[in-house]
Amino acid sequence: MTQEFTREDLERYLDLFGELELSIWIDGGWGVDGLLGVQTRKHEDLDFLIEKPDSERLVAAIRELGFTDVHSNDHTSWNFVMGTPDGKNFDFHVLERSQDGDYTYGSPENPIRVTAESLAGRGTIGDRHFRCPTPEFQIDSHTGYEIKESDIHDVTALSEKFGIPLHPEHIEYLAKRSKNEKETPLTCLH
User: Fold this and answer.
1) Which residue ranges form the domains of the chain, and what is each CATH number?
2) pLDDT (tens digit, 9 = 90+) per residue, 120-170?
3) Most buried among 53, 62, 99, 165, by the most CB within 10 A?
4) Residues 50, 92: contact at Cβ < 8 Å?
5) What is the pTM of this model?
6) Phi, psi of 4 (to 5 degrees)
7) Which DSSP letter does residue 117 get?
8) Are 135 and 161 a contacting pair, CB within 8 Å?
């Protein structure tokens, strides 16, 4: 059972990543909130991008802290989840560095290129600073799958703060949501 991943959890694990001297970028909801400079919603986990050698070191270290594999329908060597017995989950997105200084993510047969420039974001929560993907990367990466309300929350907040246009998928989602809200009759409770 997944538990909320709190700001205190984030700070504790940022300390662990620092102690282990890992190359890591906070991604997903916490990465978005870092770019915005404030926590804007609850988080179910901690998503991050990590280089393959560091991923292997982190997995070994957190197994000693009681983390175990959390199996999901999209578990691969480059995208997997590990969690604590009390439901605090890490969502790993493993990068491999290319000779040109950029990275690849995903299947070796069909890797996705991730530029070093797209990982040049800086996040802040309270007095904690961390590396994260850029706002453009965050908006781009919230496409190509079934979008959830939390995804729309994240991309619209980034779009508004940084003036980055939304993708057609996001605009379509917002239009459907707006239409559904208009079609839903209001009921009065007496």
Assistant:
1) 7-134 (3.30.460.40)
2) 999 999 999 999 999 999 999 999 889 999 999 999 999 999 999 999 999
3) 62
4) yes
5) 0.90
6) -60, 135
7) G
8) yes
Mean pLDDT over the full length of the chain: 92
Give the pair of three-digit tokens for residue 61: 């270290």
What is the Cα–Cα distance from 142 to 149, expressed in whole angstroms? Answer: 11
* Per-residue model confidence as pLDDT tens digits over 41-64: 999 999 999 999 999 999 999 999
Is 80 exceeded by the pLDDT of residue 99?
A: yes
| DSSP letter assigned to residue 101 | S
Neighbours of 131 (CB within 10 A): 19
**Residues 6 or more apart in contact with residue 32 via CB below 8 angstroms:** 40, 138, 154, 157, 158
- For residue 34 the two structure tokens come to 């870092």
Q: Closest by alpha carbon to 149, among 40, 27, 9?
A: 40
